[in-house]
Amino acid sequence: QVQLVESGGGLVQAGGSLRLSCAASGSIFSISAMGWYRQAPGKQRELVAAITRGGSTNYADSVKDRFTISRDNSRNTVLLQMNSLKPEDTAVYYCHADPIVGTDVWGQGTQVTVSS
Asked: What's the pLDDT score for residue 29?
């Protein structure tokens, strides 16, 4: 089974940057896509960015041109570079793996807090 561990969250001032990392272990060859979701207090969990096995990416409109998702296959990791952070980016960020067959896998979440 796939296990996901996130790291890189923290407290940052508006305009600053953070890089989130998601390390995958287990049956990683069965994953069709990976991504980052976030959930702010009182809000629905939303897709932030995703990357497919083939390298295609998509982003939420609110983070386009500020966030970049990438992968490092040699280390079985997915990265989310977050630049020009805004207070509205404050949320718990969850790594997500979409298997070709089977149940979605979620990381434990990492808190990102952006101060004004």
From this structure: 67
Report percent pLDDT > 70 for the chain.
97
pLDDT at 95: 97
Measured CA distances, 41 to 37, 45, 79 (Å): 14, 10, 24
Nearest Cα to 9, choosing from 86, 82, 58, 66? 82
pLDDT digits (tens, 9 = 90+) for 4-41: 999 999 999 999 999 999 998 887 667 889 999 999 99
Q: What angle do CA 56, 84, 12 make, to 5 degrees?
A: 115
Instruction: Collapse the DSSP code of 25 into the 3-class scheme (helix H, G, I; strand E, B; otherwise coil) and give the result.
Output: strand
**Residues 94, 66: Cα–Cα separation, whole Å:** 18
* Cα–Cα distance for residue pair 95/116, rounded to 1 Å: 25
Contacts of 17 (CB under 8 A, 6+ apart): 81, 82, 83, 84, 85
